[in-house]
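Colleagues,

For the teaching module next term, I've prepared a clean inverse folding example: a structure given as tokens, and then the sequence designed for it. I'd like students to try predicting residues themselves before seeing the answer, so please don't circulate the second half yet.
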């Protein structure tokens, strides 16, 4: 029996491992299972290269729980270790068996591990660890290694391990007894090992015998019935070693992609809209499947749905840095051995490959969307409302994506028609060019609340876009910056009057003296600090009074409310509105002609309140008074 001290620079590395090396204690299970998968993959590589004699047989690994003995065992039938290799790879933690193996069989092996420290995560939950291992090499003797968490270990020959492979036995410490619960281990296996490349057994389960055909029998009363189905006990395999993303796209049908989506998100009952299969091996290795879910307007709720894997080992679902920020709204899987990770495999390190991968994914998504648009525009339009916030997010956050998106980004009118931005500019140019020769795009952020304004715009022959996501204020600014020949204005904003051409202008029925007489009457019934009153000459069919807000000020406040307003404190500025009085409406003439001051004030208040109500600005006591007044007038 050999005894010794683990070759590390510090007196005792285990407290350091427990406190600093891993952000999550539960990572130990992933590390030990992935080590077992590594050992098995190495064996398969050697077999494929002809360096092993005969068939390697069963390569299934097993996780075994013994609550009475307080042990958790990870058992594989992989490459195993000799005593010398245990000394090298376990006792000298600066070395990594996987790294050395990759160097020797470069371009021929698919090996997960790059860190010799993975095994030592076991001491986060165990106060003693045993290794029973036997190398695949002919004539190799089985050995046992044992350590109680101090720098001291024992290494001796031991015949407990009969066949090739390794058993790692964790004697779970009292402060980690949660890992002696079957449910907890099953949960962690599902989280971290769901798609590892080797079948993983955890216990057994009862299933119907597929070879048994139930017969018709008679019960005690002589009635015919069917005999019970025969049950058999089988291994409970907890993972899928051959997930969809590891297969060639040509071998998969739409049902396969949808089935895999349900496997990834069993509690998500919505079908994805479409998917993108990633498969590249130069200048980096990357596979995966990304799904477009039906997106809602709440951006944050959608994130953290993409899972990052390294050779089928789960790493994280926080993929910022690898995936462009706007693409984190998608669901799915990305698998790349070329993404550098730290020793805990939980955080990304800065690396040029990460940027290349991010750019590739962005380009691939843009190309896919463009292909869908060109292939079947009608089907694309039907999906648009479910993905538009994702496209808007991409346009705002990724310049290259924004450039490509010009070809397929759509804008829907209140009439339900879809246009690209270039198509829409041509459509409205004649009717919606203002006095400054700019094409003005009118839009609504809430078709119900702004219905009156939409109707008025359409009566004049104008078109109105529906732009109702949280990103609208930022998006219209971005589109205006890209093209100086057009601008955006919300349909209830202060720009629409500038669209009226000279030949369309309607003379006012009010003189300057009339306006001066009416203005103080109107100002008296309005909140003093929030409103300015101006007279306009519109059609008799237009509303007697309308309320607008300066497009620039409102947009800055909207942008500030969701971040990125660009002006400090803009979101805290007081609201300011303009009350526009249509001098040609009969009601305004009637108010002007009214001799009874009380009645004149009441009529003015009613008209002003109607305008306030249309903008949801009439609340509390003022709304209650308006209702009482309306009933009285009726």
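(Answer key — instructors only)
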């Amino acid at each position: 029996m050999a005894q010794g001290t683990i070759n590390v620079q510090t007196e005792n590395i285990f407290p350091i491992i427990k406190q600093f090396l891993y952000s999550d204690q539960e990572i130990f299970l992933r590390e030990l299972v992935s080590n077992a998968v590594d050992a098995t993959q190495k064996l398969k590589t050697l077999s494929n290269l002809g360096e092993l004699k005969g068939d390697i047989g069963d390569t299934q690994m097993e996780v075994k729980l013994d609550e009475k003995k307080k042990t958790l065992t990870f058992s594989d039938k992989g490459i195993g270790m000799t005593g010398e290799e245990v000394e090298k790879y376990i006792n000298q933690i600066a070395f990594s068996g996987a790294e050395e193996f990759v160097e020797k069989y470069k371009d021929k092996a698919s090996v997960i591990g790059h860190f010799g420290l993975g095994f030592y995560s076991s001491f986060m939950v165990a106060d003693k660890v045993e290794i029973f291992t036997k190398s695949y090499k002919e004539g190799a003797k089985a050995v046992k290694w044992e350590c109680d968490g101090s720098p001291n270990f024992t290494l001796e020959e031991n015949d407990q391990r009969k066949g090739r492979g390794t058993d790692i036995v964790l004697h779970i410490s009292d402060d980690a007894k949660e890992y002696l619960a079957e449910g907890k281990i099953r949960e962690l296996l599902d989280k971290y090992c769901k798609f590892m490349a080797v079948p993983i057994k955890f216990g057994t389960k009862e299933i119907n015998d597929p070879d048994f055909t139930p017969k018709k029998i008679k019960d005690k009363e002589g009635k015919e019935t069917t005999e019970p189905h025969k049950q058999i006990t089988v291994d409970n395999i907890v993972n899928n070693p051959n997930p969809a993303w590891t297969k060639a796209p040509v071998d998969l049908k739409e049902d396969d992609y949808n089935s895999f989506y349900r496997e990834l998100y069993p509690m998500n009952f919505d079908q994805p809209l479409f998917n993108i299969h990633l498969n590249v091996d130069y200048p980096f290795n990357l596979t995966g499947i990304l799904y477009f879910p039906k997106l809602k307007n709440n951006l944050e709720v959608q994130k953290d749905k993409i899972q990052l894997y390294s050779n089928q080992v789960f790493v994280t679902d926080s993929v910022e840095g690898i995936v462009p920020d706007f693409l984190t709204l998608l669901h799915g899987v990305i698998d790349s051995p070329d993404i550098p990770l730290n020793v805990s495999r939980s955080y990304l390190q800065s690396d040029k490959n990460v940027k290349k991968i991010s750019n590739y994914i962005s380009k691939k998504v843009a190309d896919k969307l463009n292909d869908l648009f060109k292939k079947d525009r009608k089907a694309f339009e039907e999906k648009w409302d479910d993905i538009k916030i994702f496209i808007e997010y991409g346009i705002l956050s990724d310049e290259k994506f924004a450039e490509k998106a010009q070809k397929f980004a759509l804008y829907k009118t209140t009439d339900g028609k879809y246009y690209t931005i270039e198509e829409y500019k041509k459509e409205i140019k004649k009717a919606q060019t203002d006095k400054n020769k700019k094409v003005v795009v009118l839009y609504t952020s809430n078709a119900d609340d702004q219905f009156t304004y939409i109707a008025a715009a359409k009566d004049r022959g104008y078109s109105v876009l529906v732009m109702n996501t949280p990103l609208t204020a930022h998006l219209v600014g971005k589109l205006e910056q890209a093209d100086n020949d057009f601008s955006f204005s919300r349909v209830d904003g202060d720009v629409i009057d500038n669209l009226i051409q000279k030949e369309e202008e309607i003379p006012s029925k009010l003189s300057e003296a009339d306006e001066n007489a009416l203005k103080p009457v109107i100002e008296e019934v309005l909140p003093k600090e929030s409103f300015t009153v101006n007279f306009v000459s519109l059609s008799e069919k237009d509303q007697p009074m309308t309320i607008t807000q300066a497009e620039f000020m409102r947009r800055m406040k909207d942008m500030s409310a969701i971040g990125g307003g660009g002006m400090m404190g803009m979101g805290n500025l007081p609201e300011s509105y303009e009350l526009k009085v249509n001098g040609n409406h009969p009601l305004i003439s009637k108010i002007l002609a009214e001799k009874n001051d009380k009645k004149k004030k009441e009529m003015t208040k009613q008209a002003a309140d109607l305008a306030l109500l249309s903008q949801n600005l009439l609340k509390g006591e003022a709304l209650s008074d308006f209702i009482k007044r309306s009933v009285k007038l009726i």
